[in-house]
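Ticket #4471: structure output looks truncated?

Reporter: J.K.
Steps to reproduce: submitted the chain below (224 residues) through the standard prediction queue, then opened the result file.
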Amino acid sequence: MLQFFSKYKFFAIVLFVLSAIIISIIYSILKPNRVLPVYEPDMVNTELVDSTVQYIRKYHKIPDFKLTNQNGEEVTQQNYKDKIYVADFFFTTCQTICPIMTGHMKEVQEQLIDDGDVLLLSHSVTPKIDSVARLKKYALEKGVDDTKWNLVTGDKKQIYDLARKSYLAAKSDGDGGAYDMVHTENFVLVDKKKRIRGFYDGTNPEEIDRLLDDIKILKKENKK
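Returned output as attached by the reporter:
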């Protein structure tokens, strides 16, 4: 009996390896690739969606905008054309969640610094305070790469409408007036077609890992 197994030992090993390869191939074929959802306003927690857009079920996209970055340059949707990008909302004088979010956004910047397909966009929610000069100082202090990451200021109502009606990222209601305030921890993943593909807690390291994984998934989708 031992002589029999010894004689066919090589054959058995080859058969085992081939079987493992075949099973692996079948598994990879049958296992569907993960696809990120396209978020429409009616899919998102109503607390995060302005009442004027809660009914929208399809074709929701980030609209055109015109803001100013830390270098005094105009930033519009054209700067993000055919790009995947991560957006958030912050203010330079914030001492609570914003420093954590900025640190995590810098981590995303570092992880993707050589990836020309992915950009970052941070909107100031106190645009009167956050002048170009203040944004520039903040950018230098936080290690912002100007080629990768825009910190933008501009018309308050436009920024607040973007937060509530476009990025669906802010729980508070308001009209963008003098006493209105948006304070949100959300990072929003936007694809090359200006559609929302994910929401992430910008204060949570595990959520940043999930964001980076989702960007990889999105990049594969774009290659198809």
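Triage note (M.O.): checked the attachment and the full token line is present. The longest strand covers residues 84-90.
Status: closed, working as intended.
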